[in-house]
Amino acid sequence: MIRTARTILAKDLRLELRTKESVPAMTLFTLTVYVLFHFGLDRSSLDGSLASGVLWVTLLLAAVVGVARLFATEREEGGIDGLLLAPVDRTALFVAKGAALFLFLCAVELVALPAFALLLLGPGLLEPLPELLPVLLLANLGLAAVGALVAALAAETRAPELIVPLLLLPLLVPVLIAAAQATEPLLREDPSADNLGRWLGLLTLYDVVFVLLSVAVFDYLLED
Amino acid sequence: MIELDGLERRYGERVALRGITVRVPEGATLAVLGPNGAGKTTLLRVLAGLLRPHGGTATVLGVELPRERWRLHGRVGYLGHEPLLYRELSGRENLAYHARLHEVDGARVEQLLVAVGMRDRADEPLRDLSRGMVQRLAVARAVLHDPPLVLLDEPRSHLDPAVGEALEPLIGRTSGRTRVLVSHDVDRALDEADLALGLRGGRQVFAGRATPREARELYR
User: Fold this and answer.
1) Where are the domains of chain A?
2) Is A81 within 8 Å of B80 when comparing Cβ atoms?
């Protein structure tokens, strides 16, 4: 299964490098939203809960853009049929798509975080970065697991671009709460890691539940 | 090899196939004929295990559908309307990808690129190739894992006659595979086939031997 997932992931990364469809779109979306907040709030210095909320709502919405495109090539070019005809474990497709989305999100954040710090964040980003990294990685994992599941569900519908946000955003509420709560003390003028372990625990629990759930149901989503 | 008895398939309330009964022995060719919307493509997709039958019985390569359809994976070559290849990847990359999924040796990819006459343009992305060239690569993709059964939906579409003949050892009569062939070229299909299945509106009009006149009646 891992070998098949690596094959599919390598193909997806190669396609993304050639087409540059998802990561640039997600990054541009994120930057645009930060600029909009910059002017909309008429503030260039956010901190605490407002900074945390703006950061995470924007990243979640950028994930929606990525999820909507996650199965687009498979749908348009018959990739799912190609996989269904092959003697491979269908779960490999979930693992590969989830891994691709995880990597896309990490790539977006490499640009989005400095832009956020530059355009909106009052306190510095470097000091809380070591504590922020596990929050980002665990949130990305949750987004990737739920995103791959929702993308597969939506791929079988007539209007996946409509279905993805309708299904995805409610499912991501726990991620938003945990990630924003974990990040809020880190982005204060006087940063601290209050309750960080508790929120990281919640993110981990969410990730475990959705990875297991997705693995359990993914096969059925691909069946006719 | 293929045994269908009263096969039925619906899309919601609409019946796409009803009462299809036919038996295709190993190594034989079945021509599936009928006008647009007759259910030919649906039949191929059911036989490939891509669609679930809703009634009757269907056994393909000894596999009872839909109960055991996972056993069919990797044993059927399917050449449908879509090439099932990625436009942004080259022919070689596409075939190598499918070869890895089917656990087929990379040497088979090179062998097939030569066989379909695409070795010289194997590194160009599909979006830069003509439809005929993409069809040649799709044929290579369909037989990459050397399946005993091939399901062919208009396999010669977009191909010039010389190329069509060149693909004969892969998907033609001499390939030794059991074939289900969908074609609108009635004379050629009957010439190539041992058996014919005539469909109209999802229902079976004839199954077995058919004369060209009977076959043409389907389109009137």
Assistant:
1) 2-222
2) yes
Q: Where are the alpha helices (DSSP H) in chain A?
A: 2-19, 22-40, 48-70, 72-77, 79-85, 91-119, 129-155, 160-171, 173-183, 196-222
Cross-chain Cβ contact A77/B85 below 8 Å: yes
| Chain A residues near any Cβ of chain B (below 8 Å) | 3-4, 7, 11, 14-15, 18-19, 73, 77-79, 81-88, 223-224
- Residue B198: HSE in the Cβ half-sphere, 13 Å Cα cutoff: 18
Residue B209: both structure tokens together: 């031997």
Q: Check residue B185 and report its DSSP letter.
A: -
> End-to-end CA distance of chain A, in Å?
22
Bridge partners of residue B30, in order along the sequence: B180, B195
Q: Which CATH superfamily is domain B1-75+150-220 in?
A: P-loop containing nucleotide triphosphate hydrolases (3.40.50.300)
Quote the ipTM score.
0.88
- Neighbouring CB atoms inside 10 A of B30's CB total 26
Under DSSP, is residue B99 helix (H, G, I), strand (E, B) or coil? helix
pLDDT digits (tens, 9 = 90+) for B68-83: 888 889 999 999 989 9
* Vertex B78 angle, CA B178 and B220, to 5°: 80
Look up the pTM and report it. Answer: 0.89
Q: Where are the alpha helices (DSSP H) in B48-130?
A: 91-101, 106-115
